[in-house]
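User: Please fill in residues for this 231-position structure.
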C-alpha cells in the first residue's frame, strides 16, 4: 500500500537514495555541515535526524548528542547503531517535549520544516525556544525558497552524483522517483516553501535573533540554512 503521510513514507523503504553510496555520501556531508555548529563540550539536539549514519562525527566535539526521530523503525536502527557510543542518545519526539527548559546549547532542524504545516512549525519553534539555553543556537537547514523548483533539486543531485561517483545511478533513481510514493505525496500533501525574509520573520516572532547562513547544509546549494540565537 502507498504511504498515506510523510511519517509513514520515511519509516518504510523508499527510493530517496538511489543506492548505498548515495546514502552514505549524503549522510556524511550533512553530518559535516551540522558539525560546524556543534558546541564544544555542550549538549546538542538533532531533531528529525533521519538515518544519521554519521552522527558519531557530529558527537565528537560535544558532551552529549540527542538524536530525535519520529519514525519508529529508523529510531530502532539508530539505537542499535550507536549503542556503544556513550555520547549519543536516541529519543522520541514526546521524550524531547517533556525535557526541562534550557536543556540544549544547540538544536538542529535540518530538512524537516518543509514537511510541517504553519501551525506545527510555530508550535515547534516555541518548544525549541523553551529547550534552548539563553543565547543557544537553533539551526534550521535545507529550507526551500518559494521560487526553488524540482529542476534545481534534480540538477543538484546529478552534480552530487558526479562528485561522489553515483551519477548513472542518480539518473536511474530520478526515473524511479518519478513513479514513486514520494512524488505522489508531494503532490497531495505539498511541501512548505519560505523566502529568506519570511523565515527570518517567523524566527524573530518566536523569540530568536535570526540570520541567514552563508551556505546551506548539504549538497543543495540553492536551499537555505538559518542561524537563530535564543533571545
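Assistant: Residues filled in for all 231 positions:
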Amino acid at each position: 500500500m502507498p504511504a498515506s503521510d510523510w511519517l509513514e513514507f520515511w519509516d518504510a523503504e523508499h527510493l530517496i537514495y538511489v543506492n548505498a553510496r548515495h546514502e552514505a555520501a549524503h549522510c556524511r556531508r550533512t553530518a559535516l555541515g551540522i558539525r560546524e555548529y556543534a558546541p564544544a563540550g555542550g549538549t546538542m539536539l538533532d531533531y528529525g535526524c533521519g538515518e544519521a549514519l554519521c552522527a558519531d562525527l557530529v558527537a565528537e566535539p560535544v558532551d552529549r548528542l540527542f538524536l530525535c526521530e519520529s519514525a519508529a523503525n529508523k529510531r530502532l536502527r539508530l539505537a542499535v547503531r550507536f549503542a556503544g557510543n556513550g555520547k549519543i542518545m536516541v529519543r522520541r519526539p514526546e521524550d524531547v517535549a517533556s525535557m526541562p527548559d534550557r536543556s540544549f546549547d544547540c538544536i538542529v532542524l535540518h530538512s524537516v520544516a518543509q514537511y510541517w504545516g504553519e501551525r506545527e512549525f510555530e508550535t515547534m519553534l516555541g518548544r525549541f525556544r523553551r529547550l534552548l539555553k539563553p543565547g543557544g543556537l537553533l539551526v534550521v537547514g535545507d529550507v526551500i525558497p518559494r521560487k526553488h523548483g524540482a529542476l534545481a533539486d534534480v540538477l543538484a543531485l546529478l552534480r552530487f552524483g558526479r562528485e561522489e561517483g553515483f551519477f548513472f545511478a542518480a539518473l536511474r533513481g530520478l526515473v524511479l522517483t518519478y513513479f514513486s510514493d514520494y512524488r505522489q505525496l508531494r503532490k497531495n500533501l505539498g511541501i512548505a516553501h519560505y523566502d529568506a525574509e519570511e523565515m527570518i520573520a517567523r524566527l524573530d516572532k518566536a523569540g530568536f535573533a535570526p540570520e541567514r547562513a552563508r551556505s546551506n547544509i548539504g549538497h543543495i546549494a540553492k536551499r537555505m540554512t538559518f542561524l537563530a540565537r535564543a533571545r
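For context: The CA atoms of residues 145 and 194 lie 5 Å apart.
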